[in-house]
Amino acid sequence: MLNPLVAVVVYSAVFSVFLRIQPSTGDPSGIRSYAIFLLVTLLPWQFHVTSLTEATRSITANGPLITKIWFPRWVLPTSAVMARFLTLLVEMSVLLVLIALIEGHYAFAWIPVVLVLMALQLLFTVGLALMVSAANVYFRDVQHFLGVALAPWMFLTPILYPLNMVPSDRDFLGIDYRTLYQLNPMVSWAKAYRNALYDLRFPSAERWLAIVTATVVVLTLGAALFSRLEPRMAEEV
Hints:
This protein is mainly α. It has one domain. The protein contains 10 helices and 2 strands. The chain has helices at 4-18, 34-56, 63-68, 75-103, 111-138, 142-155, 177-181, 185-199, 205-229, 233-236; strands at residues 171-172, 175-176. A hairpin with a 2-residue loop joins strand 1 (171-172) and strand 2. The longest helix has 29 residues, at 75-103.
């Protein structure tokens, strides 16, 4: 996995120059920087990927501990996510300073909005981490399938390009492509982060509804699945 600062240089060069993908202009901020455009979504995405990658192996990697001592197993995947979340906090703090220094825009007023988005993403990622870590105990190939799935998931999320590049004038079974595309819950997070830190405006009510709904559903399902599979984990590892 690329370091975020290295990734922003690589992706900026490839997508902005060679593929001629230009960032949208921040509305109403007026910011037009591909580096900032990319970082405001790339950093949360990196948190998402590294959290799930580490959480998936958190139980199987601690097999000897699990078989000797009883403790709530959910602590392992949750602690893996929390460790990456602390890194995200530092990275986003640095990003706020970069926006101020490079663009002359002070995004500090939007810190409360960003913190709420980060907290909801944390809960959403914990829900997914509970699912994949529990499943990986019984089906060890889950960790490999996850690695394969994360790459196309990234390209199906508007991280490297603006959302308006997805056509809305074409449809599949009567549903336009952009609507289908936005069934991906990470689209709402990417757009909301970009609204707050690039456009410097409040995300729409539609975005908030999608984010809260995805968080509640995934966290509930993750907790239920983990609780169901937890009793036999010590035997399986």
